[in-house]
């Protein structure tokens, strides 16, 4: 479920519009999938940060690749925890992603 | 206010291209291309926001803008000039001053709290609005801004950008379908022409730029970007 967001980001070209669509989908999914709301909200925050950072700023292909890898690692971490992990592992994944987002300079 | 001089279109485009090159607002990179908002990769990038720091250049450009709009549309066809957040705001302010009209600005999205305003400034119902941004690529942001204006009962009839990419042939028609006529000062073709005349940049990079301008989607696909644009 989470990896579909990442796949769409990649297929849509890793540009601002792709991240905007990702943020909107993730935000909508917090309502549609309340059992995964925290994870979707964190993904929405990460995608929205990209939009805010690059909407009117130059984005090189190299930087787009780095950003994609970063959000990819967050989404994969959450996806793995929700696919096979225990409740404690899911909370640990959520905390890890939240801490990473908090540590990343805000756009 | 406007100086009421009406230079030829070709002179305006050439002069604006020279101005943008003079202040290093034009960037060409084929080895490390840029990713547009649409996901298209491109060897070109232009930073029109730099213009705000050059008063002689920005003043001339706003005179050019007023001359094009008055000549193409008329002198009494607008009630307001609205700037699109963020880069369109200063240009809208200067152009509103030239045209003797009220000014507003339009946020990309409502604030989400308080008044939840998307439009700042007073805009009367039925007002005919000129929407201003620094750039036009595929016109997507202009359509969103115009939709926000329409919610107030006003109507964007025309849109002006300092620079129009001119690489997507359907952009003017797309804007027309949304009720707007597009006006601009210069395109990438004007920049490329001046670059060739003045021997700016290497011949190799200019070949890449021309290749992109001729077939942007193909260039993008060959450089790791999207191979089609969303309709």
Percent strand of chain A equals under 5%
Q: Low-confidence parts of chain A, pLDDT < 50 over ≥5 residues?
A: none
Number of helices of chain A: 5
Average per-residue pLDDT of chain A, rounded, comes to 94
Mean pLDDT across residues of chain B: 95
What does the model show?
The complex is a heterodimer of chains A (107) and B (231). Chain A has helices spanning 2-11, 16-32, 37-54, 61-84, 87-103. With 107 residues, chain A is mainly alpha-helical. Chain A has one domain. Chain A is globular and about 40 Å long. The termini of chain A are far apart. The mean pLDDT of chain A is 94. Chain B is α/β, with parallel strands linked by helices and 231 residues long. Chain B has one domain (9-217): Rossmann fold (3-Layer(aba) Sandwich), CATH 3.40.50.2020. Chain B is built from eight helices and ten strands. Chain B has helices spanning 9-22, 55-72, 88-99, 140-150, 171-177, 188-197, 203-214, 216-222, and strands spanning 26-28, 34-35, 41-42, 44-46, 80-84, 103-106, 119-120, 128-136, 155-164, 181-187. In chain B, a hairpin with a 5-residue loop joins strand 2 (34-35) and strand 3. In chain B, helix 1 (9-22) runs antiparallel to helix 2 (55-72), helix 6 packs antiparallel against helix 7 and helix 7 crosses helix 8 (216-222). The relative contact order of chain B is 0.17. Classes of the chains: A mainly alpha (107), B alpha/beta (231). At the A-B interface, helix 2 and helix 4 of A face strand 2 of B.
List keywords for this structure.
heterodimer; A: 107 residues; 5 helices; 80% helix; B: 231 residues; alpha/beta; Rossmann fold; six-stranded mixed β-sheet; 10 strands; 39% helix; 20% strand
Summarize the structure.
Chain A has five helices and no strands.
Please specify the SSE layout and strand pairing.
The complex is a heterodimer of chains A (107) and B (231).
Chain A: H1 2-11, H2 16-32, H3 37-54, H4 61-84, H5 87-103
Helix pairs in contact in A: 1-2, 1-4, 2-3, 3-4, 3-5, 4-5
Chain B: H1 9-22, E1 26-28, E2 34-35, E3 41-42, E4 44-46, H2 55-72, E5 80-84, H3 88-99, E6 103-106, E7 119-120, E8 128-136, H4 140-150, E9 155-164, H5 171-177, E10 181-187, H6 188-197, H7 203-214, H8 216-222
Helix pairs in contact in B: 1-2, 1-6, 2-3, 6-7, 7-8
């Amino acid at each position: 479920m989470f990896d579909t967001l990442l796949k769409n980001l990649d297929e849509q070209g890793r540009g601002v519009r792709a991240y905007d669509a990702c943020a909107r989908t993730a935000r909508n999914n917090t309502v549609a999938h309340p059992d995964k709301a925290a994870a979707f909200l964190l993904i929405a925050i990460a995608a929205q940060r990209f939009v805010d950072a690059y909407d009117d700023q130059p984005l090189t292909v190299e930087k787009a690749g780095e950003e994609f890898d970063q959000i990819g690692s967050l989404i994969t971490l959450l996806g793995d925890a929700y696919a096979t992990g225990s409740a404690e592992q899911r909370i640990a994944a959520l905390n890890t992603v939240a801490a990473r987002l908090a540590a990343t300079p805000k756009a | 206010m406007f100086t009421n001089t009406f230079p030829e279109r070709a002179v305006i485009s050439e002069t604006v291209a020279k101005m943008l090159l003079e202040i290093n607002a034009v960037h060409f990179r084929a080895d490390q291309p840029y990713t547009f908002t649409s996901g298209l990769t491109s060897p070109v990038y232009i930073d029109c926001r730099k213009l705000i720091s050059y008063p002689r250049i920005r003043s001339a450009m706003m005179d050019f803008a007023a001359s094009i709009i008055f000549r193409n549309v008329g002198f009494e066809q607008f009630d307001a000039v609205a700037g699109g957040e963020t880069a369109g705001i200063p240009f809208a302010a200067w152009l509103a001053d030239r045209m003797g009209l009220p000014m507003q600005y339009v946020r990309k999205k409502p604030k989400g709290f308080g008044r939840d305003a998307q439009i700042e400034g007073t805009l009367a119902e039925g007002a005919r609005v000129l929407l201003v941004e620094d750039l036009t690529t595929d016109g997507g942001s202009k359509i969103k801004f115009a939709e926000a204006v329409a919610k107030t009962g006003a109507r964007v009839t025309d849109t002006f950008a300092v620079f129009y990419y001119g690489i997507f042939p359907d952009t003017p028609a797309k804007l027309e379908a949304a009720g707007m006529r597009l006006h601009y000062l210069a395109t990438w073709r004007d920049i490329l022409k001046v670059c060739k005349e003045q021997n700016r940049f290497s011949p190799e990079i200019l070949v890449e730029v021309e290749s992109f301008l001729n077939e942007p989607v193909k260039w993008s696909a060959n450089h790791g970007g999207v191979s089609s644009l969303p309709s």
